[in-house]
Request: fold
Amino acid sequence: MLTFLRKKGRSIMIIVAVLFLGSMFYGLSFSRLPGGSGGLEKRIAKVNGSEVDPMRFQEMTNRLLQQFKGKQLQPSDLAFIQNMALSQTVDFMLVLAEAKKRVRVANVEVEGAINGLMQQQKLNSKQELEAALKRIGTNLGRFKNLIKDEILVQKMVTKVRSEVTVTPDDLREVRASHILVSQEARARELLTRIKKGEDFGQLAKEYSLDTGSAVKSGDLGFFATGAMVDTFEKAAFKLKAGEVSDIVKTSFGYHLIKVYDSRLHKFAGAEKEFDRAALMDKQVKSFNKWFGELRAKAKVEVFTPILQGHDFRFKGRVYEAIQAYKKAIAQEPNNPMLHVFLGDTFSMMGKNDLALPEYEAAASLGGGDPTYSLLLAKTYERLGQTAKAITIYEQVSLVAGDNKAMHEDLLKKFRELKAGRQASHEQAELAAIAKREKFEKELKGQ
Reply:
């Protein structure tokens, strides 16, 4: 949840701006990936009636791509990245909408942030910044709005966290058991029996509707503040060891609570800064609760077929994902990535015979990119067509060039498939690459 807000050190706004401009200066833009545009339209989605800004969505995507920097990104990984980017964009918009109601940002704050950004990026003038923005299809005014929104969100997060105070209860945790029933009359009956001396744990085993704890005599183990619903928590923390509560009503039903023990709350690695750790823990829980309520009430409408497909796919609604991807392909039939997404979905279902033509289409449309051919070869393997798979792996080897990692993967694959001649060829290729690397290293040492 809101992972884009979890930064350390410098302000979130400055980091985000650097990543955003990094996409311009270092080629991290999503549109530069093979098939990376993915058929994205200007209308991406709506959040509580407000349109998602495509520039904000791309900026979120760039943040995620930054995390993959230096790693070999697979075409199928892009579905996850796009889906996560949309989710984080929605999260951002929800907090931003609340921020616009409750906090303010002065123009001087935006200008200060941009000036700091220009210094970090070694830009000497606003003209250089404007030229960089123009290269990705935006302008200074729009960029200022993006920066202002970042500051608003940061201030909103800070405001929610700053409203938290630590109480004595936050410094301890209790061990309790409970009995959950659906009727108040039954709760009153059980409470009377407990007061007359009947065993709380045995009654929990016999009557509690919480089957997970009932088998353990109602035992919930130790828990701290923020772990249970408010009404239950307040009642539990008022009890002393050995005491039983009166009837406690929550959205789950009617509870009887018995506390057995109380101890100092433990925070991992916080032995020297206990109070600070308690505050940070409560701030996180408070923000998560606040944001969870926003998310639960949010109305999100996704318009772009490819993003609809991702959403359905990662929710396990594969048949709906297939229809969405097919619609995306109908709109953009020459995009190899769309065929990969559809092929991956068929593969998830174990329908490799249906995945095969999609990977074939991706390989055909991919402009010689070996990553698509690798997907195709793996599908032939799953279908038991080993000879065909080996032929495609050989084709990949021809275009792999000096890609050492790819040749290493091919060597491993040919050995798995007991393709001795092809494995020997890969060993020779790797030896040649090693020789060239050694020669280049020696030249640099001169």
Remarks:
- Confidence is low (pLDDT under 50) at residues 1-41.
- The beta strands are 45-47, 50-51, 172-181, 219-224, 248-250, 253-264, 300-302.
- The CA atoms of residues 219 and 303 lie 47 Å apart.
- Residues 77-102 form the longest helix (26 residues).
